[in-house]
Design goal:
Layout (H helix, E strand, L loop, with lengths): L14 H9 L1 E3 L13 E2 L5 H9 L7 E3 L3 H10 L2 H11 L3
Antiparallel strand pairs: 1-2, 1-3
Helix pairs in contact: 3-4
């Protein structure tokens, strides 16, 4: 009888593709002059002005949505329900 060898090689699930997908974000908050406009797509990371504004108002980070989830977040804002809308209202008062 022969024993077949089991393939014990560990296969990674292409983490680079996952990281790349996570980097594409959409800002769904209200326009903040000089920082970000409603609907801005960020595919190369955050701008310096946006990073500085997030430090002053952390709620803005919650309005940076992965592009795959943007439709749901925009629907919450349109229907004035959900966590995204709550963050939107908080950021709308940011000056």
């Amino acid at each position: 009888m022969s024993e077949s060898k089991k393939n014990t090689e560990v296969v990674e699930n292409e983490p680079e593709a996952v990281v790349q997908a996570e980097k594409i974000l959409m800002y769904v908050g209200p326009t903040i002059v000089g920082v970000a406009s409603h609907g801005t797509v960020l595919n190369n990371g955050l701008t310096e002005s946006l990073k500085a504004t997030i430090e002053k108002e952390p709620a803005i980070r919650g309005l940076l949505i992965p592009i795959e989830n943007a439709a749901v977040a925009l629907r919450e804002i349109d229907t004035k329900t959900g966590a995204t809308y709550s963050l939107y209202e908080k950021v709308a008062n940011y000056k």
